[in-house]
Amino acid sequence: MVPVTFPPAPRRPRPRPRLVATDLDGTLLRDDKTVSARTIAALAAAEAAGIEVFFVTGRPARWMGVVSEHVHGHGLAICANGAVIADLRDGHRIVRVRPLERDDALATVHALRAAAPGVSFAIERTEGIHYEPAYPPFHHDPGATFAPAEKLLTDHNESFYDQPVIKLLAHHPDQDPDAFLTLGRRAAGAHAEFTRSSPSALLEVSGRGVSKASTLARACEERGIAPEEVVAFGDMPNDLAMLGWSGTSYAMANAHPAVLAATTHRTATNEEDGVARVIEELLDR
After folding, report:
1. Angle 93-144-137 (CA atoms, 0-180°, nearest 5)?
2. What is the DSSP string of 201-212?
3. Are 246 and 225 in contact (CB under 8 A)?
4. Cβ-based neighbours of 284, under 8 Å, separated by 6 or more
5. How much is the pTM?
6. How far out from the chain centre does Cα 104 lie?
């Protein structure tokens, strides 16, 4: 009996994306924290073609000035690893908060102090950040209070006490960054979500269930956008959940090894306008 052969099924083109979700530092921004002219043009062209662009970043809303003038359409950005949605057209006004509950923050502080002696903390709230004295002076904001984390979280007399906690930062001077992330999750993963985006041993701690992915998923659901209609870009572990949720994911050539291993596509580095190159290709298609 002669075997019957069938022609290969035609390749189905991927659906046209309806939303681009991009990280900022190490992804959309160049190393000097600027947005290149090519990237500005690509973002504008995407929005003109009906593709929404969401900036999805670990930055707090007050550090979004670098891209505020490049928002189009909705004007919203997902900040603080999903803890905040901010309206960049309205003075970075926070329109949604998914906080880290105070009890969970305290439990995390206690667990990390026991598991990693030498750790120091900063507490990001909706209107500013406050530090322990030992915390490295990365971005000490004017008006910041310096005190032990336990006091910063529980002192009713502080003017910022009623402001929601959006992120707890934990720094260690000696730990390997990836090992510290594993340690943090093991020690206090029942109380919060742990991730990292810094080259140093700096953990970013959010409320349970809060991530770039979960907040982006909610924003897309409100717009009737399915995951397969989303193209996402990232470079560090705090992007992994978002990249995994999105239908199409791109790792920057300069990405962390875990991001390179988890994504289906690659693009050029942030210095080489990797995001803009993909957007241009999508629009040409």
Report:
1. 110
2. SEEEEE-TT-SH
3. no
4. none
5. 0.92
6. 21
Span 216-243, mean pLDDT? Answer: 97
Q: Which tens digits make up the pLDDT trace of 148-192?
A: 999 999 999 899 999 999 999 999 999 999 999 999 999 999 999
pLDDT band at 72 (very low <50, low <70, confident <90, very high): confident
| Residue 111: φ, ψ to 5° | -65, -40
CA distance 237 to 255: 9
- Interatomic CA distance for residues 77 and 114, integer angstroms: 36
Cβ burial, residue 260 (10 Å; 0-12/13-18/19+): middle
What is the bridge-based pairing of β-strands 52-56 and 76-79? Answer: parallel
Report the pLDDT averaged over residues 248-271: 97
CA 10 to chain centre: 37
Give residue 13's identity as a one-letter amino acid code: P
Give the pLDDT band (50/70/90) at residue 11.
very low
Residue 271 structure tokens: 């210095």
DSSP state of 1: -
Residues 6+ apart with CB under 8 A from 102: 153, 154, 165
- Return the pLDDT at 6: 45
Residue 16 confidence class, pLDDT cut points 50, 70, 90:
confident
Residue type at 6?
A: F
Classify residue 27 by its DSSP letter: I
Residue 44 CA: distances (Å) to CA of 20, 108, 220: 12, 42, 20
136 half-sphere exposure, CB direction, 13 A CA radius: 12
Buried/exposed 160-195: b ≥16 CB within 10 Å, e otherwise = beebbbbbbbbbbeebebeebbebbeebbeebbbbb
215, 78 contact by CB (below 8 A) = yes
